[in-house]
User: Fold this.
Amino acid sequence: QVQLVESGGGLVQAGESLRLSCAASGRTGSVTSMGWFRQAPGKEREFVAAITRSGGSTSYADSVKGRFTIIQGNAKNTVNLQMNSLKPEDTAVYYCGADTSPYTSGSPHSWMYDYWGQGTQVTVLS
Assistant:
């Protein structure tokens, strides 16, 4: 089992920044990729960004390219999502996911992720 805990959400004005963190514990040696997804009210969960365990490969949704950066955290088994130039449409609950498959790498598909955190709310005011 892998446990994931997100933190760093909050309420900001459009144009401001936030950094989300996801701390993994448990059988972290089985994790091959970690990803961030978000879900707004009434909408499906959507891909935001992903990173391979080595940190050598990252991927982003088109809607966040150039504004968001996914990086390995300084603390072991931590992945951060730096969000700059936030927009009201970025408002959502953000979830961290962990993929343990040896055959995928930074998948944008939520069904590929085996473990999820509880989510952290991000609200961007216009």
